[in-house]
Amino acid sequence: MNEYSDDFKAHLNEHLFETLMEDMIGQFLRSYMAAAKNKQAKFKMPAALDQIKGDVRQAYGFFQKFMDPPVVQSYFRIFEMTMGILASDRTTFPEFLNDLMAVYWDTPVWYLRFIEESNLQVCRVIDQ
Prior knowledge:
elongated
C-alpha cells in the first residue's frame, strides 16, 4: 500500500490524492468495524484488545504519512472511544458509552451490542 500510495501521490493532482486518501481511510474504518459484525468472528478478550490496538496503530501510521495528522486523528477517534469502552470496567462503561453516543449518535445498534458483549467478556476476565 505504501508503494501504491507513493505513486498516487507523485502522479495525481493534490486534490484528487486527498480525496483518494479520505475514501481509503473511510473504507478502512467501515470495513474494520463491520468485521466485528461477522458471526464467525470470535474475540477472545483481552487479547483481542491488543490485536485491535496494534492494527489501529499500524493503520494510523500509514494514513498519517499521506494525510494531515489532525484529519487522521479525527477519523480514528471512533477507535479511541471504542477501545476506551472495551477496556472500561462495569462502573465506567456507561460513561464511556455516553461519550461515544454524544459524538456518534447514529452508531448502529449491532455495533453497540458488540461493544457491550465484548465489554462483558473483559469484565468477566478481570473479575476472575
